[in-house]
Amino acid sequence: xxxxxxxxxxxxxxxxxxxxxxxxxxxxxxxxxxxxxxxxxxxxxxxxxxxxxxxxxxxxxxxxxxxxxxxxxxx
Length: 75
Description:
There is one protein chain. The protein has a domain at 2-38: YefM-like fold. Helices cover 25% and strands 20% of the residues. It has 3 helices and 3 strands; from the N terminus they run βααββα. It has a 3-stranded mixed sheet with strand order 1-2-3. The termini are far apart.
């Protein structure tokens, strides 16, 4: 955890953002009183939608057939 004043935060904002991106927690204080906590925002993964690939995938008619060079292993 890093404690900085508002003035330091304004002066070194880019550096503090980099530190937050690396997992550091930054506390910004007004005088000696902590006011704000700066942390990395976790990116949200989009929710999966069932059927979103419908019509995009085609399966060959011989999909279930064993390839000739593998038949000896499947018997």
